[in-house]
Each structure stands twice: as structure tokens, then as C-alpha cells.
Design brief:
300 residues, 26% helix, globular
Length: 300
């Protein structure tokens, strides 16, 4: 058997940028289930009844992100069900009530529960889905749990949340922030930023409701502001973003932020994308255009 090739290593070797991949789910339903019983697909779990399994299957096909979550090396336990961005959680002892709550949430109705005022940090450690998520995700998760005050943060390890080639992959809810290439060394700075309701720039992927070039430009502006001692604030972008792009195309956007106006230049480049280790092992993948930052120039 050949040596395992990790998709994260290939992604780094190819120079694929992290910025611009910040799409995060709008709604997440977290179901507590022991990590050792996770399987792929996520609705085919050990010790799960056919009725509950079918309900999760239906929820996933309704485009709701269902995350199985567990908690280790931390005080307390997880509630049975936790809805985000509403940040409402509840425990269920009756499976019929649990199934009804899941189906109601799929339909847009939030179940009765307790409001959680803490941000939830979802860290993918799903070894069943991808080796990189286990390789990078679990050490990052353990570092976060070790440093985070459970009164201030809800840190969970979860099944697949996407972006395996950028592992460790994290999502912060209800802020809907997505992070990648996280390591244990990032944990302290990351928690400090989240506590201040700021984004953690070193591993931030970009704003979820923006196009890829807009994410790249906004993140470049925020990093420039941080490097030049300006406060991190709202960035306003000007410039037309093309609908059709070819490799080598260039784009310049103007960014206005308190105390500065910037010109941000980028170009479109093809990268071989192999989203997870399974794709790599099968020799799959496809060429995909990505926007790469070239230069940030202050306007005078």
C-alpha cells in the first residue's frame, strides 16, 4: 500500500489561497452523539434508530447543515440539540419529541429551549470523512478546549463542515465566520479575537455573504489596517466584479476604511482542487479558478 497523501499538503504545495473560501452555513443543527459512533454518511450512526436516522437524512437533503457534535477534555456535557444561529438548545429524553423538534426546525420553527449567549466554535475532527480533519482538527480542538473559559465559549468537535483541504476547519456561530489552516498555536489569538467580537485575521477565510473577490479584497484591507495600526472596522468596496472570468484576468477593487483608502489588485489563477484525501487517493480533482491577491496600494 502506498504512502497516504494528505490533501492539505497538496493544497499548500500548490499555493492555493485560503482567502475567498469563507462560505459558511446559514443554519446549523447540532446533535450530540459520541465521536466513536460517527460514520459516513452522518445519518448512518452506530446505535441510532432507523427513525432518527431517516430524519437526519431528510434534514440533510433539505439543505440544512446537521452536525454531530461531541465534547472531550472539558467540563460539562452537551445538550441533545442546539440550533444556530438562534443559539437555542434543549435536551430530549423522548426520541419522538427529538424527531419532531428536528423536523420542525427543518420547516423553519425553532423548538422550545434555553438561549445560549456564548459564541459556538465548531471544529471539524471527522476522521471518518477525511484524514486531514483528524490530523489537524483534533489537536486544534484540544488546544481550544484547554484555553477557553467554558463560561465564555462553547467549543465542540464536529462531523464534516467542508473545506477538508484547509484543515483544521472551523466555523464560529452565530457570527457565521469560517476559518481554515488552524493549528494549536493559533488557539490563544483566535479566542482573544472572538472574545472581542473581531475576526481572527491569520486564519480567516472571508465574509460568508460576499463573492470570492470581495472576500479577498476585504480581508486584504483588514490585514493592511492591522499592520498599519488602524482599528479594524467596516470595509466599503468599490468596483465592478465580472461575471465571467478567465485565467490571467486581473481585477482591481477600491477599499475604504476609517483612515485610509486602498487599491487592491488581484488576478484569477487555475488550481487543481482535490477537496479531500479520498479524491486524492482516487486520482480525482478538477481545475478551478481562484482569485489571488497581488498588491495593496494606499491612495493619497
Amino acid at each position: 500500500m502506498g504512502k497516504h497523501v494528505f490533501c492539505t499538503d497538496l493544497c499548500l504545495e500548490r499555493g492555493e489561497p485560503l482567502a475567498g473560501t469563507g462560505d459558511a452555513p446559514k443554519r446549523v443543527l447540532m446533535l450530540a452523539w459520541p465521536r466513536g459512533k460517527w460514520r459516513t454518511p452522518r445519518w448512518e450512526l452506530v446505535d441510532m434508530s432507523p427513525e432518527l436516522s431517516q430524519t437526519l437524512h431528510e434534514a440533510a437533503h433539505a439543505k440544512l447543515h446537521v452536525a454531530l457534535v461531541d465534547k472531550v477534555e472539558a467540563e460539562g456535557s452537551l445538550p441533545t440539540l442546539h440550533a444556530l444561529p438562534e443559539n437555542v438548545y434543549a435536551d430530549f429524553t423522548d426520541e419522538a419529541e427529538l424527531i419532531a423538534a428536528i423536523r420542525d426546525y427543518v420547516g423553519g420553527k425553532v423548538f422550545a429551549g434555553t438561549l445560549d449567549t456564548r459564541p459556538t466554535v465548531i471544529c471539524c475532527t471527522d476522521s471518518r470523512r477525511d484524514a486531514c480533519c483528524a490530523r489537524h482538527g483534533f489537536s486544534t480542538y484540544k488546544a481550544l478546549v484547554k484555553l477557553a473559559d467554558p463560561q465564555d465559549f462553547n467549543i465542540v468537535q464536529a462531523t464534516h463542515i467542508g473545506g477538508c483541504r484547509f484543515a483544521a476547519s472551523l466555523v464560529v456561530m452565530p457570527q457565521r465566520q469560517r476559518y481554515g489552516r488552524m493549528t494549536a498555536e493559533h488557539a490563544e489569538g483566535f479566542l482573544d479575537a472572538i472574545a472581542k467580537n473581531e475576526v481572527y485575521l491569520p486564519t480567516y477565510k472571508g465574509r460568508s455573504d460576499a463573492s470570492e473577490p470581495a472576500q479577498v479584497a476585504e480581508l486584504a484591507a483588514l490585514r493592511w489596517a492591522a499592520e498599519n495600526g488602524l482599528r479594524l472596522d467596516t470595509v466599503s468596496l468599490d468596483g465592478a466584479i465580472p461575471e465571467h472570468v478567465n485565467e490571467g484576468d486581473e481585477l482591481t477593487l477600491e477599499a475604504a476604511l476609517p483612515g485610509a483608502r486602498l487599491s487592491i489588485r488581484m488576478h484569477a489563477q487555475d488550481f487543481m482542487i482535490q477537496g479531500n484525501c479520498g479524491v486524492v487517493a482516487k486520482g480525482g480533482g478538477e481545475m478551478t479558478l481562484r482569485w489571488c491577491l497581488d498588491e495593496v496600494t494606499p491612495q493619497h
